[in-house]
Amino acid sequence: MADMCEYGGFTHAVVRGIPETFGASVEGEGHKNGGGAWVDLAKAQRQFGCLTGALRQKVGLQLIEIPPDPELPDSWRIEDMAIIQGGTALITRPLRQQRRSEAEAVRKVMSELHLTVVEMGAEEGGSGGPTLEGSDVLFTGKEFFVGLSAHTNRRGAEVLADTFKDFTVSTVPVCGGVRLRNVCSMGGPDTIVISSSNGAKRTLRMMEQLTDHHYEILTVPEEAAANCIYIRGPSNRDFLLHRPADECPDSVSAFQKLQDYTLLPTACSEASKAGAALSSLCLLINRKHRHF
User: Fold this and answer.
1) What is the phi-psi region of residue 126: left when phi exceeds 0, alpha when psi lies from -120 to 50, beta otherwise?
2) Residue 217, CB-side half-sphere exposure with 13 Å CA sphere
3) What sign results for the dihedral spanned by CA atoms 37, 41, 46, 48?
């Protein structure tokens, strides 16, 4: 097995702008998302700007922004398009055919960063082939957990395991239509943040049964608060981007237990209406040993 790497030491963030068609989907119409909630385009764009500003100016990451594409209304959910570890980027295969062309721009950026790009392949048969979306993948620095959900299947998890052979890859069920990263995320190198919902607790029990590693668990009462972005920035400071008090008021006190962290409350209400989370909006990369 590979040497375990401390999670969170990122240098670059790749994001994709919010298009004018934000909120439109095959199920939705106009700016009403598939779940029936009306989204505020201008507010979503402001929130995106705050996120990118925090990543660049406060954390100190190098930010690469792919322009928005109105023909691809979900392309801002860039986390789904690639799984990146070390010098390898696995380009994923989303469930919906309409989303697969989003990978083209991401693939180009990965190549420009001199990452080894691995393709999942283009098997015919729609959902009958392997499907994998990044929001169903949790990398802890020691191993991968892949959520088997409505968006990611076992064949997709097998492709990930074949790509990152040096790491254990375990599959866990995800209840309902949510994704794994909607109910848990990394809050530090050895800390998993998880929702207190019954479904999240079942998922956590399965993860604990499958792993040989010990993780600290930080439980938050609101499911939306369980998705955070932890980064050990170039200055070796610990940053945690999390939902603000006006969106998840009951979870703020849990985050304050994290000592010596710089907490960065970051709004995500509009993306959340589309079923997304904070981490959905960025791909994080560590290229400390490369020069451009």
Assistant:
1) left
2) 16
3) positive
- pLDDT tens, residue by residue, 58-92: 999 999 999 999 999 999 999 999 999 999 999 99
10 Å CB burial of residue 269 (0-12, 13-18, 19+) is: middle
Q: Distance of CA 18 to CAs 23, 42, 69, 77, Å?
A: 10, 9, 8, 9
> Model's pTM, two decimal places?
0.92
* CA-based end-to-end distance of the chain: 30
Name the residue type at position 212: D
Tell me the C-alpha distance between 264 and 239, whole Å.
7
Strand partners, 93: 132
Residue 127 has pLDDT above 90, yes or no: no
- Residue pair 259/280 in contact (Cβ under 8 Å)? The answer is no
Please report which residue ranges of the chain form alpha helices under DSSP H.
41-53, 103-112, 154-163, 180-183, 198-210, 252-255, 269-273
